[in-house]
Amino acid sequence: MIQESIMGELDLLQNNYMKFTKGAQILIEPPDFSVGTTPHNVVYSEDKMQLLHYKPTVEKTCPVPVLVVYALVNRYYILDLQPDKSVIKNLLDQGFDVYAIDWGYPTGTDRYLTIDDYVNGYINNAVDYIRKKSRLDSITLMGVCQGGTFSLMFTALHPEKVKNLITFVAPLDFDTDKALLNIWAKKLDVDKIVDYYGIVPGDFLNMGFLLLDPFRLLIDKYIGFLERMDDKRTVENFLRMEKWIFDSPGQAGETFRQFIKDCYQKNLLVKNRMVIGGKRIDLTKISMPLLNVMAEFDHLVPNDASHPITDAVSSADKKTLVFPTGHIGMFVGSKSQNEVCPKIADWLKPRSMIEETGNANHIKQKEIKKINRKSKETNK
Question: What is the pLDDT of residue 172?
C-alpha cells in the first residue's frame, strides 16, 4: 500500500515535471503566431506615430470615420489581437470606416514630448488628415483607457472637429482608492523617476501593472496554461496575450511627469483646471453625443474614475454602458464580441450619418487648404 502511494506520487511528480519542461520550451521558443492581422495601410506618420487606416470588410454604411486612440502604455493591437477577438474587425464588419493610432516606441529624443505634443500635435494632425480625406468637418473619436483621457482633452480643446465621442474604460476622476494604481500613483516620486530615466522604461511600468494582481497575473495563469497547453488554439491565444502584456513601450518622461502630477496627484482635469499648450481644458466645451463605456470589474480604471465623465460634459445626448467584465475582457473576452461591440455599434450608427441639409457637415475648401499646408510643414 505504501509502495503504491509512493509510486503514485512519483508518477505525479514526473508528469508535472514533463508539463513544466514542455511549457517552458513553448514560452522560450514559441511557435509562429501573429497579432494585429486586420488588413490596413499606414496613411500618415509623424515621428514615431503612425496612423493606420483599416480596409473595409463590408460596404461602408456609416460615412463618418472612427479614429481609435489607445493608451501610451502597451500597444494598440489589443483591439485587434486575432480575427475572432478584434474590436477593430467587429467595427469594420458593422460598416464603419476605422482608423487607429499606433504610438510606436519612444526613444531618447522623445523624452521631452509633453501631453500637449500628443494631444494638440499628433492626435490633432491625425484628426485633420482624416477630415481632409473624408471631406468632413468632424469625425468620431473613440478613446481607450489613457487614450480616452487624451480624447477628452482633445475634444474639449477642438470640439468642432469631433462629431461623436466614445470614452472606452477611460479615467477622468483620479481621486479614488478603488484601484491600487491610483493609490500608488498619489505617492509616486515621479520627478526622481523621470529625472533618472528620461524615457521611463516599459518594463518598469509593466511590473507595476503585474503587481496590481500578482497571484492571477504571475502564478495562476501559468498553472492554467500548463493544464491546457496540449490544445493548439489555447496555446496561440495565451501567447498572443503574453506578447501584448510584455510589449510595453517606454514613456516620454515629460508626458509621464505631467500625467502623474496633474491627473493622479492633483486631479486637475475633472476640475477643469488642467492646462496644456497654454490653454485650460474645460470639459463643458464637450457638447456632442457622448458614449461612456465601462467594465464593472475593472481593476485598472475603476468605475469611480469613469462615471464622472458623463456629468462633466455638457452634452444633451449622452449614454453610459457598463458591462460585467474586467478591463482586458472588454477587448478580448466573449462579452467584447457578443455584447460590447454590438452595443457600441447600435449607438454609433444613427449618429454616423451625414446630414442631407446643405453642406454643413462637409469640410470647407478653405479648411482643406489650411490642413494641406499644415501637413506639408509637419512632413518636412
Answer: 98
